[in-house]
Structures are given as C-alpha cells and as structure tokens.
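Researcher: Structure prediction, please.
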Amino acid sequence: LVNWSVVHLREHFNFDDPGGTDSAFDPMNDAHTNPNVAPDAAWGRSLLLTDSKTRLTSTSADTAQGNPALATIGYSWGGLFQFNAQSVDPRVDAMIPMGTGFDLRYTLASNDTPKTAWITIMTAFAGRGGNGEPLPLMLSDGNSESNGANTQQNDIPHNKPHQISIKNYKKLGPNAAVAYCDGNQAVAPDPGFLPFDDPNERDPGQTTVQAVPPNAVTSRAVRAHLFMIQGYGDTLFNFNEGFDNARCWENQAAAGTDVRLLQQTSGHPLPAIGPDHYAGQDQSMYLDEIVHCGIEGGIPKKYVMRDVGLAWYDFHLRGILPPDSNGDTSHDADDIFPRACITQTNTNTDLRLKTGDDNPGFSGTNSSNTAYQFSREGAVFDSIADIPTGCAGATSSCVPIAVDTAELGQQGVITGPNPDPNAAIAPQQFLPLYTVPDNMSQVLAGIPLADLQITRSNPSAEEIVYVGIGVRRCHANSADNTGSGNNCETVLSQIPMAPPSPLRAELLHFQVAPVRVFPTPAADAGMQTITNTAPFPKDEPRNTIANPPHYAMRFGDDPAVPDSTPLEKGRLVGVSTRLFTGDQVGLLFFGEHPVYKTISSASPGSLTISGTVELPLLDASAAPSNIPAYVENTSAP
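Model: Predicted structure follows.
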C-alpha cells in the first residue's frame, strides 16, 4: 500500500495553477492519472513529503527519495497492526495506536483463563469477514478450546477445560509488540518479515511464495514515534497493555524517539456490562474526544483529542512547530500533550459536557442513558516510568496492605456460578483495605500489585475467583459531592447495602483479574506439588511439563522491561479514580464475570486468600472545584 501510494499519489503538473492549460484534474485523462503514461512535463510533484519535509522527487518506492513521511493511526486490531508494521517497515515515522494489545496471550487468556465472551465475539466477526474462506485453525481451535476443552496431546496431563493450548499460545506470542519488546526472551523468536507460503494467500496463478517487499527489513525493532491511547474501562485490551506498550518504547527506543501515553476512560464495550459513559459518539470505539490533563491556573487543562493528534502528526511529519504552551520556549511535542496522563472521571453524574456549538470538538449526546461522566481531571507524569505500579512511583506513604479474607466470615471467598442469572456482576464480596483519611482527597492511578496465597479445602478441585479493585464511596451523600461529609461507619449503619444503595462497593472500570487454581491430583505428583495452597502470581501451569515445548509464561512480570516487576508480585488490572474523605478501597471478589463467561468453579466452594496488596495512591491533592463553561449542571434549576 505504501509503495503504491509513493508511485501514484502525485499531482498533475498544472493542477493547482489557475493560469495553466490543464488546471482541472480530469480522472478520464490517462496522463493525469497514470504516472507510467504521463510525460514528465505533465506529471508533477508528489502529494507526499519526504522525511526531510520536502516533496518526493522520485516515483520509485525503493529509493531514498521515495521514503515518505508516513504515519499510522488505528483502533483495536488496527492499533496492534501498527506495532508490527513499524517493526518491519522503517518508513513508518509516527503512530497513534488506540485501544490495543501488547501481548495477545495476556489479552485473550490472562492468568490462563480465556476471555470467552470476547473470543466468541471475535471468532464470529472473523467468520463474517473472511470472504467465504474457512476460519484459520488458530481461530477455530482457540474458540473451541476456550469454550470447551483443550485436547492437544502436548498439553497432557495438564490440558484443562477452558484453556488455550500450548500450540495456540505459541502462535499468539510473536504477533504483538511483546515479540520484540522483551529481547525475545519470553517469546519464540520471530525472524521478521518473512514470506509465509500459504496457498490460500497466493495471488491467482501464483505458484511460488510471495516475495518480500523491497522496503521490508528482517529485524523487528522499536522504531517509530509513539502516541499510545488506551482505555482503562476496556475489558479486551486493558490499562496494563497500553502501559506495557508505552513502557517498552520508552525503555528501548532510540534516543530522541517521542513516546506519549494517554489512559482515558473506556474502550471496547462488552454489551453485558458496558461501559455506557464515554466522551464521544462512536459507540463501537468509546474513545474520549475531550480529556483534561494537568492544571493550568488552577483549572484542569482541556484537550480536544482530534486537534492534539493532528498537531502531533504535523510536528513529526511536517515540522510544524506548536505554540509555546508550557513556557519553556522549546516549541516541541511537550507543548502539544503531556508525556503521560491518566484521566479521572467526574463522579458527579449531574455534570455533563455540553454539545454542539457550546463545545466544539465534542460530538457526544447526553441523553439520560448515555450521560457522559467526563474526565474532569488527569494525573500528569514526566515519563511513563513514573506511572505507579504498586508502591513503586506512588507518592503517598505506600506500604503493602495485608489481605486476609477470613475477615469475610467463616466461608472466606465464595466461588461458583452466580445464583442470579439476571445480574451482570453479582454477587460480590468486598474486603476493605484502605480508608481515605479525614479532610483529604487522593487519586488512585496506576497498576495495583498483589502477592497472594490461595488456600482451598480440596486440592483435587479447580477453583476460580475474579479479583478487582472496589471503592465504597462514603462521600456519596455529602451535600457538595466532594467528600466533606459522612464517613463509612456512620452511613453504613443507616443505609442497607443492597442495591441501589450508593454505598454498595463499585467495581472500578468493570475490570477483574482471574485467579485460577488448577487441580493437583496424585497423578501429577511427578510434575506438580500436591498442595491446597497456590500463589498468585504463578508461572503458566504447563511450564511444569518436563522439557516444555514452549516458552515460559509468567503473568506477574512486565516483559516490556525485564526485571521491572518482581515475579512474586502479580499485577491486577490498572485503575484510575478520585477518592474523597471516608472512601474505602479494597478487593472485590466474584465467582464469575461476564468477560470470562461460562468459566467458574464447577460447584460453590470457598477460598481463603491471604497476602499483601500495593495500591498506587498519589499524594493528597485538591479536586477541581470549578465547573467549566462547556459543562452543564443538569440538577441546576
């Protein structure tokens, strides 16, 4: 596609000259449309710029003069594709991937638990878009394994129901940035852009494998400027994957590479749970059109993301310098957007962005069922590395918090199917761990870390529990909705916990991490320890096979930056929210979850979970108190 563009996207010599003899472009005139026919005098300058910001002077795509200033943009799989594209085509100068993955093994089967709802949806999409061809085996097998059984011989005796096979893990691993962001230590090396001799992929009449394009390289690497946009409400590609992509670029890119990260409210919506609050009109994407990051003159700074993206591309592709917005006289990309920003949604649902002419750049509608909880503020960081993971980078006094689910009662954490088929995410058990002190507000933003031990009564039974970060918002009844009022102990004695009480713990962003403890029967004694206690995190359980025919899969580590997260600490899913006086933060436990549909303990059981959790809390900071002119208060008379 790039090679075609270099050759064909050229202007007729007199196209933009009103005094010329051929001032009107004629698509029927072969001399205007075909550079192979048009004489040099008629066929003029390229529509494309070179990397040196001049017009292309050659129609040959495989020459130095044919290297265009090239950027990519895309969402979801169109985001992930950009990472692979820039790794094999050095002509890609800048990219804006949105809502996409870092490691497809984590994306589709985090902690060895397949996201059956998403896998089913994507398999159906692939079938509809395959031009009548049968699904690739990886898709059909993966769907069968996730929703049924793993029957691969190499996985015996560790092949379990609802489990992706080693065979398909090996195919997933190299097909994302993780394949070259970890130095190929945890993923089977991929040699780069090599032809794949699939008869179904050959052109008509072609009998040999497709040749490698002339501009391709065979060494995959980090190359392009990166502006990563991720949604922490995205249950397909979550906070952690956007962070890993940006962290890899920051850690491994060449000096001078511009790396930026925006973590905004939402992302891929799963119909069963949402999200239904977002900052735009396109409900297939759920990307915020307007965000607030940092404070300027005591007021959160507003960014219209379509303008930000255009300015960032103009800077890197065309050399257009932005106005000096930060006062350092440098006129660089820092004047366009911060290095890293994690937004926090406004918790007052009465406040909504105005639409139309009142708020240029925002196309959302604020009907009663799509009231937009806009990103009223955003925590700004000087680098991606400064984003907290557990206590690392947290600016509050941060210590590991003890976890003991025995406090939930004699049964501990209840597992098993949901007895209420009409409830999307229920029942739940909330274990409070931290209470915001009096007269204080804080921001919780980053990736929580956990070091847990899971004890079950029967080591031959498989147990699954889903763990998320919950907040019991004890300020919900205060008059000004800023948390200056009641504390939990007072309010809980007056208000029942059943819905729709405002004090029912809120699962942040619909996100959970599966904790799956496989059976350890006596037959496995030679390869696994028979115990009723298992850790989180853990190695992928099939790593215990003698001479395993695959690479190690460690879900607690961040492979983008080797040794960045100790293996004894597992990562929960990243979160972002404003907390107020009296708010309680803790762990929420579920026996099942819509993202992992049909995967739960076979029968109700109980677990006792102990260990520690590190919460990424930032220092106390005042919440924004002003209401911008482009925001309406629907509760006002």
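Model: The two ends are 56 Å apart (CA to CA).
Researcher: Thanks, that helps.
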